[in-house]
């Protein structure tokens, strides 16, 4: 099967500050890639650039998603083609109900695929099942999007959306930040339930903790806008025990080694 | 050297319109209702004198700083339409009759009571919903005290008080709860100057819901004046909807006098007209009054919409809540001036005012000014005002979920607007207002999807 995502020499900046300084990454169907790294290494920028955030200017490199150029597409086109970003900080939108967002998002993707839209009844039946899996009370879907949600509820709401949209590529940006251990397990179960041979995931995380539950196939360490180490799941454990300091020290050598 | 001050064009238009009004008065006055009663005649003449002294408001008047009426409205004021215009009456907007609202409807066409479009259901004893013009012909003396109360009135209200010909008279005696709403609808059919006068009197412990509604695509110049008198513990929900066509000019005043313990919930929704100015005032004449004033205005193109509100906490233990929202697109301009006056001795007053404006275009402008004047020491007052644009994070979040950029903007704009309508208790009215607002959003959205 062809790769779901191929990133070649990706560079991006915000204002005049370079954040990504040459990223190469290939993600195949069925794979879960963890991207780790210290604060400011560019992890969240990579996630946002892939989702189409216009705050960042891509200055070099290319990204292919399902064999086609990704960077020329609008964020909504990427979404409808199955690229999903679970936000580190889910946005509160007063006055827009969660159920409206969920239904509109799902039907936008279905229209794009040429599938019939779900009516209110079918949609509710579907969303109720997913809510249960995420241990979310039903009233959360009738409230304004993320408004007044606890930190844990916001994160679950992101995973709920992912579960409904069944993306081909899910990018999870710090899906575990701010979660207590019970909520972390619920979120991890939600992520694991979506692991499938045709689907890929990029799990962006600062800490190894989430990776105890969502075990990655590959771990990449990002430092100063470059991937400086790649390895299996054991690399995450090494980072946990040694911290990020040794990565930064080793960074120049790693770059030379490429 | 010529030192004569040249008259500005706007001043000239205002002066000429004033001269037209004064010149027309001797011929018009004898035909106005109530002139046979000395009290009403005197009241009209006093009002005309007040207007003669001030003339049409200009930008030199602090209260009219952003809304110079002398140019635009004065030019069309009392212009006798030519034959062509008179012959081409606009079709009446029958959708504006709100048939599904139920209750009682009093309709007016070009300022005149239209019985054929009105529908008054069975009423409890003593309740009157009728033409003010007819009442002034029949029994002018009974209305004199209320009509003479000119507190809070602007020069334009004085002009109305001189020339008023018709409007609605609503009287609800004590201890009556009117379950059904009263819909006062004013339809513009021809290019005309109309000066509706509405008088609402609600007795002790009584309750009612009123809608004052302006619609029609004709280039009407409306100068409306509404007074509401709430007796002890009366409870009134009132909504003014200005949904006129883009060639209309609208000036309106709503002035509320509240006796002890009364509650007034007022909403002002202003969507149409090239220029709209609304003066809303409430005076607490007794203790423990409550007033909530909410507003929503949508403007695009070169529309200009101005709300000036004033709440007088003249007695202790009063509560006021004010929340206005504006959405401005194109080259439109929105003005909000919210004044709260806490009088000496009005202790335990609790006042809270916010104004939020959303600018959808770089050329739109919002001028918002809360004004708190506090002359008592044991009070709780707060205010806030914001002018901003759609939030980039919210837009990106929606787009990342598959909304195209235009739909994301519309959804967020609508979300901002609809929260201003949440407080409207009457569900079918809220639905009408939501439809009217949605119809004026840059991109139409299916309402059912958003519910």
Structure description:
The complex is a heterodimer of chains A (258) and B (451). Chain A is an alpha/beta fold and 258 residues long. Chain A has helices at 43-51, 75-80, 98-112, 120-133, 151-165, 181-193, 234-242, 245-257; strands at 5-14, 17-27, 32-36, 57-65, 68-69, 83-86, 93-97, 144-145, 169-173, 200-204, 218-223, 226-231. Chain A has a six-stranded mixed sheet with strand order 6-9-10-3-11-12, sandwiched between helices. The two termini of chain A are 26 Å apart. The model of chain A is unreliable at 252-258 (pLDDT under 50). By secondary structure, chain B is of the alpha/beta class. The longest helix of chain B is centred in the first third of the chain and has 20 residues, at 9-28. Chain B starts with 8 loop residues before the first helix and ends with a helix. Residues 82-87 of chain B have low confidence and may be disordered. The interface between A and B is medium-sized, with 33 and 24 residues.
Most extensive chain-chain interface: A-B, 33 and 24 residues
Could you give the distance between the termini of chain B?
A: 69 Å
- SS content category of chain B: alpha/beta
Number of strands of chain B: 20
How big is the Rg of chain A? 18 Å
Ranges of chain A with pLDDT <50 over ≥5 residues?
A: 252-258
Poorly predicted residue ranges of chain B: 82-87
Topology, element by element:
The complex is a heterodimer of chains A (258) and B (451).
Chain A: E1 5-14, E2 17-27, E3 32-36, H1 43-51, E4 57-65, E5 68-69, H2 75-80, E6 83-86, E7 93-97, H3 98-112, H4 120-133, E8 144-145, H5 151-165, E9 169-173, H6 181-193, E10 200-204, E11 218-223, E12 226-231, H7 234-242, H8 245-257
Parallel strand pairs in A: 3-10, 3-11, 6-9, 9-10
Antiparallel strand pairs in A: 1-2, 1-4, 4-5, 7-8, 11-12
Helix pairs in contact in A: 5-6
Chain B: H1 9-28, H2 38-54, H3 69-76, H4 83-87, E1 104-109, E2 112-113, E3 128-131, H5 132-138, H6 144-148, H7 155-163, E4 168-172, E5 182-187, E6 193-194, E7 197-202, E8 207-216, E9 221-230, E10 235-244, E11 249-258, E12 263-270, E13 275-284, E14 290-299, E15 304-313, E16 319-328, E17 333-342, E18 350-359, E19 365-374, E20 380-388, H8 392-399, H9 405-418, H10 427-438, H11 447-450
Parallel strand pairs in B: 1-5, 4-7, 5-8, 6-9, 7-9, 8-10, 9-11, 10-12, 11-13, 12-14, 13-15, 14-16, 15-17, 16-18, 17-19, 18-20
Antiparallel strand pairs in B: 1-2, 3-4
Helix pairs in contact in B: 1-3, 2-7, 8-9
